[in-house]
């Protein structure tokens, strides 16, 4: 299955398992654009639909779990994916279906890189994940993840603790996520009120040099823009599509974060939603 050997230099085949954002800023739309911008070939299996503008989510509809299973089994029977990003999983049944399909893939001896972006609530405050799915994320999807990329509120929910209030606590939570089964954890500090965007990446061999679990700090300038919708989706997709080109997660995550910083710098050139549209000629 997917058995033909690819020629050298072939694009990374990257799959996003996530929800749709019709406004094109987040969800599978952001994931596919990121894959393409970074030279990958994008595949997408949908877990849910949203009705959404650039500023608001008005409705979320899960895809039936057996249809999620059908999408993944049909795809995996044909396509050898190199990299998988899991985004919004919508509800507990869908999250379980995604986990089962990935376990089956691993049992068949296939081991694409897996990044889990544990999407829970949109920036606009709308729930994108049913509350009873949080335990499925923690117990079934996290142990399948080579890298998990929570923001501070998501890390707190996964760990069952208070949200980190400073960089020290964020670093501790990144380390704690490894104990839940993720191989690497990137806790994103964007919700902290600091001049820089500081993320903490924990994993074996990082910062310590002796193979034990350590943490490295990734800092980037905070870009003054209101167009931040979909930054989490973009970062996790960039991490996974770039991973095969690097010999570890740290350099892949660094390149992904640089890509996101440049995308944010360019964001104010875009006039997409709200009252910004100008009448045609
Ligand atoms: N819609 C979908 C389908 C998403 O997956 C996400 C986030 O991951 C969002 C909306 C929310 O994006 P944001 O919180 O950046 O507005």
Automatic annotation (TrEMBL):
Enzyme kind, highest EC tier: transferase
Cited Pfam families: Phos_pyr_kin
Pathway: Cofactor biosynthesis; thiamine diphosphate biosynthesis; 4-amino-2-methyl-5-diphosphomethylpyrimidine from 5-amino-1-(5-phospho-D-ribosyl)imidazole: step 3/3
Nucleotide-binding found in the keyword field: no
SUPFAM superfamilies xref list: Ribokinase-like
Protein name, as recorded: Bifunctional hydroxymethylpyrimidine kinase/phosphomethylpyrimidine kinase
Species of the source: Promicromonospora alba
Residue ranges of domain Pyridoxamine kinase/Phosphomethylpyrimidine kinase in the record: 21-267
Keywords noted in UniProt: Kinase, Thiamine biosynthesis, Transferase
Annotated signal sequence range: none
Family matches, as Gene3D superfamilies: 3.40.1190.20
């Amino acid at each position: 299955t997917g058995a033909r050997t690819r020629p050298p230099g072939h694009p990374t085949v990257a799959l996003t398992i996530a929800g749709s954002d019709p406004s094109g800023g987040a969800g599978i739309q952001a994931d596919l654009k990121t894959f393409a911008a970074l030279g990958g070939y994008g595949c997408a299996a949908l877990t849910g639909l949203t009705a959404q503008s650039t500023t608001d989510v008005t409705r979320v509809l899960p895809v039936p779990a057996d249809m999620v299973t059908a999408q993944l089994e049909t795809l995996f029977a044909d396509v050898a994916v190199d990299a998988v990003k899991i985004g919004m999983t919508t509800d507990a049944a869908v999250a379980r279906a995604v986990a089962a399909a990935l376990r089956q893939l691993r049992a068949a001896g296939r081991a694409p890189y897996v990044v889990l972006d544990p999407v829970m609530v949109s920036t606009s405050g709308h729930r994108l994940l049913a509350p009873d799915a949080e335990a499925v994320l923690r117990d079934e999807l996290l142990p399948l993840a080579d890298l998990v990329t929570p923001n501070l509120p998501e890390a707190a929910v996964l760990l069952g603790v208070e949200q980190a209030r400073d960089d020290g606590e964020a670093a501790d939570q990144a380390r704690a996520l490894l104990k839940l089964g993720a191989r690497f954890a990137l806790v994103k500090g964007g919700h902290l009120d600091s001049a820089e965007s500081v993320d903490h990446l924990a994993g074996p061999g990082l910062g310590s040099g002796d193979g034990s679990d350590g943490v490295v700090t990734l800092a980037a300038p905070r870009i003054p823009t209101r167009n931040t919708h979909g930054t989490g989706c973009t970062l996790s997709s960039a991490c996974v599509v770039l991973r095969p080109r690097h010999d570890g997660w740290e350099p892949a995550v660094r390149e992904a974060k640089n890509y996101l910083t440049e995308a944010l710098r360019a964001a104010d050139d875009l006039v997409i939603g709200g009252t910004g549209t100008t009448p045609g000629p």
